[in-house]
Write a structure and sequence with these properties.
Layout (H helix, E strand, L loop, with lengths): L1 H21 L4 H24 L1 H12 L2 H28 L1
Helix pairs in contact: 1-4, 2-3, 2-4
């Protein structure tokens, strides 16, 4: 029951506003910045948990695996697709 509430809040209220905001940018910028932000957050979390030098080793070991590359790339591609949908909806309104 609570899951449906949060889905309605994020999908109904915030979804169109975020897609319109992302639609102003080019898709490769959205993809690249999202991918960079995911890897930066991974490094930041590992840096606080293990320290800086072990974090570099840990993140480089994670990034060069298949899931470590394709999972963040898939999230970034999904957000770039949302930007595409927001851009087409904004062009139809004008």
């Amino acid at each position: 029951m609570i899951d449906g509430f949060w889905r309605g809040i994020f999908g109904g209220l915030l979804g169109p506003a975020i897609s319109r905001w992302l639609g102003r940018y080019t898709f490769w910028k959205v993809f690249f910045l999202t991918l960079t932000a995911i890897y930066a957050l991974m490094f930041l979390i590992a840096g606080f948990k293990f320290g800086v030098v072990p974090a570099i080793k840990t993140i480089s070991a994670i990034i060069f695996t298949v899931p470590g590359f394709f999972a963040p790339a898939g999230i970034a591609a999904a957000l770039a697709f949302c930007a595409f949908l927001g851009a087409t909806a904004a062009k139809k309104k004008e």
